[in-house]
Amino acid sequence: xxxxxxxxxxxxxxxxxxxxxxxxxxxxxxxxxxxxxxxxxxxxxxxxxxxxxxxxxxxxxxxxxxxxxxxxxxxxxxxxxxxxxxxxxxxxxxxxxxx
Length: 99
Prior knowledge:
Layout: H1 2-8, H2 18-28, H3 35-42, H4 46-54, H5 62-72, H6 76-82, H7 87-98
Helix pairs in contact: 5-6
């Protein structure tokens, strides 16, 4: 089973600190009456919040990183450091926009 999952996993996946995001979402989300309200405030679709908290290998886009930065009132660089997004991962995200 593990080998099967590994083989089907995207080859362009870069590890990042998903747990930091999940922990923050759990704390920050308590400030809102509903996940929908939190998603609106954060500027991402509700489905994205669900993906981040339920998927064992969640993905993130450059647009979502900007939304997190804006919500947290910090620079994109600070968000990248917080989530431990590597420069290679960032390059991949930027290339996805260009394609």
